[in-house]
Design goal:
Shape: globular
Oligomer: single chain
Keywords: Metal-binding
Mean pLDDT: 76
Helix content: 25-40%
Protein name: DDE Tnp4 domain-containing protein
InterPro entries: HARBI1_dom
Pfam families: DDE_Tnp_4 (PF13359)
Number of strands: 5
Strand order of the largest sheet: 3-2-1-4-5
Distance between the termini: 54 Å
Radius of gyration: 17 Å
Cofactor: a divalent metal cation
Largest sheet: 5 strands, mixed
Order of helices and strands: HHHHHEEEHHHEE
Length: 169
């Protein structure tokens, strides 16, 4: 798999993004951030897969139907049935990101990250960072009719966001 990852990353970035659900520059930045973590080492005589390969395998795991239904059930259990089609969250809706200002996350209620972009600082408007995610670029591929993403009031009003109302006035 490593050769195909490297080949796709360098020669077919469009295919890489389609398969891995992340842009090549974001993938490279993420590898750079995690490559020195001890989780990628062992004391066995058998070597591990490369960091790149382990990351790619992890990122390919977009939620299946069972995970999606579990997320919908969580939303229903914590709100009401009418809101269960909002099964994922964007930005810091569930994950406090104040210590990771360059990360932009789309997650399930169990905090499983299903899509993200990297490199946007706190001064970047949320909707600008959102536009770089795979889900934003082709939300019809990831969200069925009537499904939406929970977001804060910094996001545009549209059919695939349920945004909160600001009470500051």
């Amino acid at each position: 798999m490593e050769m195909s990852i490297s080949s796709m990353l360098n020669k077919r970035p469009d295919k890489f993004q389609e398969q891995i659900h992340i842009t090549p520059p974001t993938f490279d930045a993420l590898v750079k951030e995690i490559q020195d973590d001890l989780v990628f080492t062992n004391n066995a005589n058998q070597g591990q897969q490369s960091v790149e390969e382990q990351l790619a395998v992890t990122l390919v795991a977009f939620p299946d139907t069972t995970e999606k239904e579990a997320a919908k059930q969580w939303v229903e259990n914590h709100s009401c049935h009418a809101w269960c089609n909002g099964w994922c969250f964007v930005g810091g809706t569930l994950i406090p990101l104040e210590f990771w200002p360059a990360w932009y996350v789309v997650s399930l209620p169990n905090l499983q990250i299903i899509n993200f972009s990297y490199g946007y600082t706190g001064s970047t408007h949320d909707s600008t960072a959102w536009e770089q995610t795979m889900i934003a670029q082709d939300y019809g591929k990831y969200l069925e009719d009537g499904e939406w993403i929970w977001a804060d009031s910094a996001y545009p009003v549209c059919s695939h966001f349920m945004t909160s109302l600001s009470l500051d006035s």
